[in-house]
Amino acid sequence: MTPEQREAYDLHKKGMGKREIARMLGKNESTIRDRIRRAERYLQTDPAVQGAMSEVGMQDIGVLHSGWVKTDGASLYFQQPKDNDTTDTLDRIKEYFTGLPAIDLPPKQTGPSDADLLTVYPIPDAHIGMRAWAKETGEAYDTDIAVDRIQSGIGQCVQSSPASSEAIIIALGDLLHANDNTNMTPASKHVLDVDSRHYRNLEAAIYAIAAAAEMAAQKHDKVTVVVQRGNHDESAYMAVMFALAERYREDSRINVQKRPGEFFVHQFGLCLLASQHGDKAKAERLVMHLADEWPEMWGATRHRYYFTGHLHHSKMQDVGGVQVEQLRAVTARDAYAASNAYSARAQFQAITYHRNLGEVSRVKVNI
Predict the structure, then answer these.
(1) Where in the chain is the domain with CATH 3.60.21.10?
(2) Looking at residue 217, what DSSP letter applies?
(3) What is the CATH code for 114-366?
(4) pTM of structure
(5) Cα(94)–Cα(66) distance, rounded to whole angstroms?
(6) Average pLDDT, the chain
(7) Structural element, H or E, at residue 296
């Protein structure tokens, strides 16, 4: 049992509630619940197993479910009851939402903003949780680097962009490198190079997009956050989306779009903005789908823009009255990309639109 788990467990046994303990220790209520639960599981473990685990530095019962304990005269096999993985994951996500406090943002920085302008901050293919070895790929990458990169890149974009009244942050799919603890792509089952545990990477992704949203809120009057599905995080993206929606549930300046489906579409004056990860359809079909599904917006606009990611390199084309732009990824190359001679560079952008004139400004931050 870790000292943190023992501390939370002892306070709980003395009659303190989990929320009270969380306030006292300065932690989320979900963190305290998890520590108490792990402590209880440890105390229910056979003492011999506790001792064996302690000897090899595995005090956290959540790490080890079974194994062999070798003694002088025999080898003993033990097996701990294993939680249902699906139920345990859902419980953890639910607890995280419950313990996540709503945020009181500091006041927006003083200064006028232009109601005729809107700025888009796309975050394509960040692959938080990916691990790259610099000697193999040319550049190191892990969870901490990914979060720092998003904070730095978006921060520079916000600082250099016009003071538009509105802003949209679009996590354009593959925000997370892995969808779960299997460390494989959901559809193709390709084995992934993953840094740390999925639980930690999920928390890091929530933190990174929250940091981006709150930096943008210091400049813009209204910030919309969009978290889209990717082929790497087919369902994990929803945990990020719902966590952020809960975080800003009482905030009037940050709105997290919570809609089912894979497409984001927004009208701003004569501008039509759309995005999708880009793994399921080519540009021509995306444009036809846009016109067919949102004919009112199509007919009411003159400047139309479609963002995709997925392939990690830059490509822009005009298709049937729409500027379709495939964006460079935020992530570094992994071993697969390096071995296949992919050489695209990482990049952040901030694109500003005038409600009547279309795109009027673009900031690029190369990594």
Answers:
(1) 114-366
(2) H
(3) 3.60.21.10
(4) 0.73
(5) 27
(6) 86
(7) helix 295-300
